[in-house]
Amino acid sequence: MTKRMFVKGNEAVCWGALAAQCKCYFGYPITPQNDIPEFMSKELPKRGGVFVQAESEIAAANMLLGAVASGVRAMTSSSSPGISLKQEAISYMAGSELPGVIVNMNRGGPGLGDIGPSQGDYFQATKGGGHGDYRLLVLAPGTVQEAYDLTIEAFNLAFKYRNPVMILGDAILGQMKEPITPKDPVIDDSEVHNWCLDGAQNRPSRIIKSLYLEDGALAAHNLKLAKKYEQMAQEEVRFEEFLTNDAELIVVAYGSIGRIVKTTIRKLRQAGHKVGLLRPISLFPFPKEILLSLAKAGKKFLTIEHNLGQMVEDVQLAICKFATTDFYGHLPGNLPTPNDFEQPILNSLEK
Amino acid sequence: MKEKIVFPKPKVLADSPMHYCPGCQHGTAHKLVAQTLEELNLVEKSICIGSIGCSVFIYNYLLVDTVEAPHGRAPAVATGVKRAKPDKIVFTYQGDGDLASIGLAEIVHCANRGELVTVIFVNNTVYGMTGGQMAPTTMVGQKTTTCPGGRCREREGEPLKMAEMIASLGGTAYAARVAVNNIKNLKKAQKAIANAFKVQVDKLGFGFVEILATCPTNWKMTPLQANKRIEQEMIPYFPLGEFKNCLGENQ
Questions:
Q1: Residue B148: is the preceding peptide bond cis (ω within 30°)?
Q2: How many domains does chain B have?
């Protein structure tokens, strides 16, 4: 049993990557995720790994593409404006079926925005982000321990599906410190040898590409990708359900906001209000079925986000047969407290 | 009469017709790379980074492990592959739009870091695959579909001299410019490409070869006219030769 550690969310991502045997990290400075490249520049070379500070986020993401094409576990990280620059390579990795892990510590936007927490990148993360018809597997940790655990998961899922996986955190998660319990996961990448590029020795040469010009070839490729996304929806949905059984109102919130809302729910419960929380952990695939069954049971809904309404569209789509969801958006520029959400929740409960 | 092959094709080149236009020198450049890989016994440990442009299908002709990079990003992808697998031989094959325009940051920083990779840069002064638009290497006065009146120095600047630029960087171990327009130049080109791989094998630094090449279709010339243009117009502006060589006695 490894000793517990007291670390920032950004550092937990790094420790998770090391536990998952990440061998290469490619980064570029941007607030609020600089702890990640700083940590990796110090710790990865000690363990025989590679750290490269790239000339841009574009280059960092393409270095990731190259490293994972050779079958090695690798990662890049950034924050919102930098993630926009990585979208080119992310689209190519999705099209080329490459298992890159990308971390986004979401800050305020659009444009340069601010350097504070925000959930403004939900659409970009869950609807593809770059050009073309593809999806990322998106995991949204709410605690520092979860940041650690889900980073390990992210590598395993990336290689299981040969698809890019995004960890979607925010400035709150990246900067807050909590104790975590490290793990020693078993890593099995034996299948990598069936597809990776390591020189055509005693086998025909391999091609990793996303160009499909022949008649019907791209259609067939897109259908193959769609099948993977269907399998993800079957096998990879993750969420936390908190006091939903007898709740009249279900609050839906993810990431740091989900965790802050949980405290609000606890407080309102003490005052006798029947409220519960559904916290999506996998944002793609989205936990549609649990939401649908809660809607079928006659619950009311309130979606709370740190933006002006993005995930609320997926919640509404999931429950539209039986219910509608209210929305409360916390504006960027400050850190919400549990008190901020009390009145909005009570308003929806009393409707 | 019995036929006898006196000039065999490298085995690593696929036995299939190429999609290149008549008189295009990509095929010649492919063959030189193929010959080098075989002569230096590198085929089985090579990883090629393809790029965007006419040579996007290089993987159909050069039978080594290949990954396709986004436009201009091949040197970044090559960095990722080489850092992950330092015992492999990694090279990119890029055109002038790809390398000297959209990928300028990637090529300069890759060379400056001294990445142990080799870059084959085919300069035909035009965006070929998209139909002959102006490239950063288009000659002053040269007409293209996006500079129909000819490239203008005051408006578009002068063509970039990549081999010289790359040679000026500390991480570069070999940088040369060659042409394949006649047998004499072809032999020099073969040697330069071998050197650009040898600096990688010997871990001396970044290797770079710029190949001046024809694009008869977009130059609106016959293959012979295009070949002549290399000699008469391109070489005077893009001088041939080695600009840096850290191999052996030149170290």
A1: no
A2: 1
CATH number, position B138: 3.40.50.970
- Domain containing residue A112: 5-195+226-233
- Residue A221 within a domain: no
Least CB–CB distance from B65: residue in A52, A92, A205 = A205
- The distance of B62 to chain A (nearest Cα, Å) reads 9
Residue A252 in any domain: the answer is: yes
Domain span including residue B107: 26-250
- Any alpha helices (H) in chain A, and if so which ranges? 9-19, 35-46, 57-69, 80-96, 122-126, 144-161, 171-175, 217-235, 255-270, 288-296, 311-319, 338-350
Tell me which chain B residue has its CA closest to the CA of residue A71.
Answer: B84
ipTM of the complex: 0.96
CB contact under 8 A, B59 and A211: no
Closest Cβ–Cβ partner in A74, A202, A210 for B84: A74
- Which has the closest alpha carbon to B120: B84, B159, B92, B158? B92
Name every chain B residue with its beta carbon within 8 A of the beta carbon of A96.
Answer: 67-68
Cβ-defined contact of B44 to A200 (cutoff 8 Å): yes
Question: Residues 44..103 of A with a Cβ closer than 8 Å to B: which?
Answer: 50, 52, 54-56, 58-60, 62-72, 74, 88-89, 92, 96
The per-residue pLDDT string of chain B (251 residues; one tens digit each, 9 = 90 and over) reads 788 988 889 999 999 999 999 999 999 999 999 999 999 999 999 999 999 999 999 999 999 999 999 999 999 999 999 999 999 999 999 999 999 999 999 999 999 999 999 999 999 999 999 999 999 999 999 999 999 999 999 999 999 999 999 999 999 999 999 999 999 999 999 999 999 999 999 999 999 999 999 999 999 999 999 999 999 999 999 999 999 999 975 44
pLDDT tens, residue by residue, A154-165: 999 999 999 999
- Asked if residue A249 and residue A114 are part of one domain, the reply reads no
Q: How many CB pairs under 8 A join A and B?
A: 139
In 3D space, the residue among A278, A270, A330 whose CA is nearest the CA of residue A299 turns out to be A278
On whether residue B10 sits in a domain, the answer given is no
The answer to whether position A336 is within a domain reads yes
3-state secondary structure of B56: helix
CATH number of the structural domain spanning residue A303 = 3.40.50.920
Q: What is the CATH number of the domain that holds A169?
A: 3.40.50.970
Top residue of A196, A205, A212 to mutate, by most chain B CBs within 10 Å, is A205
From A52, A67, A207, residue closest to B66, measured CB to CB: A207
In a domain, A149, yes or no: yes
Q: Is the residue at B6 inside a domain? A: no
pTM, rounded to two decimals? 0.97
